[in-house]
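Give me the fold.
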Amino acid sequence: MENLERAFESETCGGANGSEREAELLQKIGELTVERDFFIARARSIEVKQRRTMVEPDIGISMRRQCELLGVNRSSLYYQPIEPDAEELALMRRIDELHLKHPWFGSRMMTRMLKREGFEVNRKRVQRLMRQ
């Protein structure tokens, strides 16, 4: 911190090394400006699903940095959705049928009807399936 001011002085860098260092710093400033202007401003206006597809593992920027710039959670890149099993689909189909016959049924009445028909469900599960 004490020598921070000297880092940007051309006199202390010394001749050719000073101009090389200056060129490096200007290049880095340019890269950061492009990142800020393009990625943060423009890329974040794109839908999240499309931004996820923009992340590529084999380019010069790390996955972590790409996700930071695009505003994408890294964990969402690795998520694989799980398909519902046959029992769950049958239960959802029956809830849909009952709802078409009795649209005023809430989750409590729907749970009672399903239990009478032999399904083993609780109210929370019925609420979740009704939302879906």
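Residues 15-42 form the longest helix (28 residues).
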